[in-house]
Amino acid sequence: MEITAKKTFTCFSAPVLSICLTVMLGMPAIAKKQNFFIKPYIQIGNNPHLADKESEEVVWFSQNNSPTWKVETKQNYSDWRSDNTALTSTEIFNGTVHPLHKFTCQLTDLKPGTTFDYRIMCDGELAMASWAKSRKSASQPYSFSVFGDCGAGTVGEKLIAWQCYSASPDFIVVPGDIVYSSGLFSEYMSRFFPVYNNNTPDQLRGVPLMRSVPMIGVVGNHDTALNGGNTLNFKKRPDALAYYEFWNPPLNGPITSTKSKQIPQLTGAPETYAPFLKSVGDKYPRTGMFSFDYGNSHWLALDGNSYMNWQDKELREWVENDLSQSHATWKFVTYHEPGFSYDTLHAKEQRMRLLADIFQRTGVDIVFAGHAHDYQRTHPLTFTAKIVEGRAVVNEDGTVPGEIELDNAFDGEKHTVPHGVLHIVTGGGGAMLYGPKRGIDKTPEFLDKFVSNTHSLTQCSVNGSQLQFSQIGENGELLDHFVIDKK
Predict the structure, then answer these.
(1) N or C: which end of the chain has fewer CB atoms below 10 A?
(2) Rg of the chain over CA atoms, in angstroms?
C-alpha cells in the first residue's frame, strides 16, 4: 500500500526538510495487488462554484477494469465514509497501451478549508491512503502556486516541484506547456506524473504533490502538439491531446462542438481519432476553457493558442459575462501566451491584448501566463487598442498596436493599490531557460521586473483584501515580492 503522511513542517531548509520528511514518511509498503497504472491525484472536477459542502475528485488509471474499487474519506476524528456512489470508469485511448481505464470518484460532503483523509481499496485490500485539501470558503485565507512550461524532464523542473511542495499551497495553476514537447500521453508518463506524484518527497526525483493538492492545468501550444499549425493528425501522433485525458476542470467552457474552427483541428481518417473522441467525451473541446471560484477569488482559464479568434463576438461576450457576473474580491485570468512579454521568440505574439479592454472593465487584478521561459512582471497597465472600422487592428506580424498607460507609482511596498492590470509571465517551471535579452536591445517600458537566470514559481497568499506575491527561485531564493491591497 502507499500511505502519505500529512505535512506538518513550516519553514526548513531543503536538506533539513528532506531528512524530516524521510523520518515522517518512511518507505511506502507495496500492495499485494498493484493495480495503478497512474497513481491517484486530486482534481477540482466539475465544481465551478463554492458550496457549503465541498466536492473534489480523485482520479487514477488502471490497466485492469475488473477489480472492485472502493473509496472512503474521513474528516477530523469521524469514521471512514464510503464515496463509492460517485465512482465512474472510462476506457481511455492513449495510442500505446490497451486496455487502460480511467477511474474518477467524487469526494463529497467535505467541510470547506479542511485537510481530510482518503483511502482507496482494491478487492478489499488497501491500495493507497493519502490526505488532501478541500476548497477554502470566501472568508478563509488561502495560498496558491503558479508555474508554467514545466514538464521537460529537467533538474529545474524537479527543483521547482520541490519548492512548490515546500510552500504547501492550497492549489496550483499551470498556465500551459504542461509537458514537452507535444502534449503526448507518453510524455506525461515520463516527464510529469513521476515528478508531481512521486511516492515520497525527493528534491531530485519528485514529490507527492498531486495526490493531496488540486492542480489545475491550462492548455498551451505544446499541449496541442501543433507548434506552428492548427491541425493534428492522430495517425502520426496517436497519443496526442493527452491534456483532455488527464485534466478534470469544470465543464463550463463556451466551445462545445468538435466542428468549431477555434480548437485543434483533427485531420486524417476519422477512424484514427474516433477512439480519442469516444474516451474523452464532451471534455474535448469543452475543457479548453473554464472558470472556477476559490476562496474569495474567481479564476478564468482561456485558450491563448493561434487558432483562437478573440475578435469573435460570442467568445468576447462569454469572457465579459463570466468576469462581470462574478462578485469575488479577486479576479484572476490565466492563459499560456502572454500579451505583454519581452523576448525575441514571443514578443510579437500579442493577440491576447485583444482582451485587455474586457479585463480592465471587469476589474481583473492579475493575468498569469507562461510561454516565455522566465519571470516577467509589468507595471499595472491599461491598454487601448488601435481601432479601425470598429475592430482592433492586428498587424500581419502578430502585433496589436495601441496605447499603454502605466501606473509607475505602484511599488508593492508603500504604494500597494495598483491602477491597472498586472501581467505576470511565470514560465520558468522547468523547460530550458531563455537568455537575458534574446536579441532585444531595449526593455519595453511596460516591464517592471525580469528574471531569466533561474527557474522559478509564483507563490501567492490571500487574506481578505490583501495579496502577498512572491517569486521563488529553484533554490528557494526570493526573486520578487510585492503586496496588493484592494481599494
Answers:
(1) C
(2) 22
* Cα–Cα distance for residue pair 105/339, rounded to 1 Å: 38
3-class SS shares of the chain: helix, strand, coil, % to 5: 15, 35, 50
CA distance 356 to 86: 40
Between the two ends of the chain, the Cα-to-Cα distance in Å is: 51
Cα 268 to Cα 384: distance, rounded to the nearest angstrom: 42
Q: Is the pLDDT of residue 23 over 50?
A: no
SS3 of 109, please? strand
Quick one: pLDDT at residue 34? Answer: 59
Predicted confidence (pLDDT) at residue 185 exceeds the cutoff of 70: yes
Instruction: Please report the pLDDT score of residue 78 as a whole number.
Output: 85
Q: What is the Cα–Cα distance from 138 to 158, expressed in whole angstroms?
A: 32
Look at the alpha carbons of 483, 365, 334, 199 in this order and tell me if their dihedral is positive or negative. positive
pLDDT in tens, 188-224: 999 999 999 999 999 999 999 999 999 999 999 999 8
Return the residue matching grid coordinates 480519442: 276
Tell whether the model's pLDDT for residue 457 goes beyond 60.
yes
Picking from 298, 284, 286, 288, the residue whose alpha carbon sits closest to that of residue 329 is: 298
Domains and CATH numbers, the chain: 2-133 (2.60.40.10), 142-485 (3.60.21.10)
pLDDT digits (tens, 9 = 90+) for 334-389: 999 999 998 888 889 999 999 999 999 999 999 999 999 999 999 999 999 999 99
Q: What single-letter amino acid sits at 33?
A: K
- Mind listing the pLDDT tens digit for each residue in 304-329? 999 999 999 999 999 999 999 999 99
- Indicate whether this model's pTM tops 0.85: yes
Q: Which three cell numbers stand for residue 480?
A: 520578487
Backbone angles phi, psi at 424, to 5 degrees: -110, 130
Which residues on neighbouring strands pair with residue 106, listed in sequence order? 57
**Nearest to 324, CA basis, from 369, 291, 288:** 291
Do the strands 478-485 and 125-133 form a parallel or antiparallel pair, or are they unpaired? Answer: unpaired
Q: Taking the C-alpha atoms of 34, 43, 279 and 65 in order, what is their torsion angle to the nearest 10 degrees?
A: 20
Q: What is the reported pLDDT for 395?
A: 97
Looking at residues 97-101, what average pLDDT do you find?
A: 78
**Coil vs helix vs strand at 188:** helix
Question: In what helix (H) or strand (E) does residue 402 lie, and over which residues does it extend?
Answer: strand 402-406
The pairing of strands 125-133 and 2-3 is parallel
pLDDT at 398 over 50: yes
Q: Which of 149, 151, 202 has the alpha carbon at shortest distance from 427?
A: 149
